[in-house]
Amino acid sequence: MNNTPKIKIGIVAVSRDCFPEDLSVTRRKNLVKAYEEKYGKEDIYECPVCIVESEIHMLQALEDIKKAGCNALCVYLGNFGPEISETMLAQYFDGPKMFVAAAEETSSNGGLVGGRGDAYCGMLNASYNLKLRGVNAYIPEYPVGNAEECADMIHDFIPVAKAVYGLKNLKIISFGPRPTNFMACNAPIQQLYNLGVEIEENSELDLFESYNNHAGDSRIPDVVKDMEKELGEGNKKPEILSKLAQYELTLLDWVESHKGSREYVAIAGKCWPAFQTQFSFVPCYVNSRLTTRGIPVSCEVDIYGALSEFIGTVVSDDIVTLLDINNTVPSDIYNEDIKGKFPYTNKDIFMGFHCGNTSSCKLSFCEMKNQMIMARSLPEEVTNGTLEGDIMPGDITFFRLQSTADNKLRAYIAQGEVLPVKTRSFGSIGIFAINQMGRFYRYVLIEKNYPHHGAVAFGHFGKVLFDVFKYMGVEDISYNRPEGVLYDNENPFA
Question: Cα 109 from chain centroid?
Answer without folding.
Answer: 44
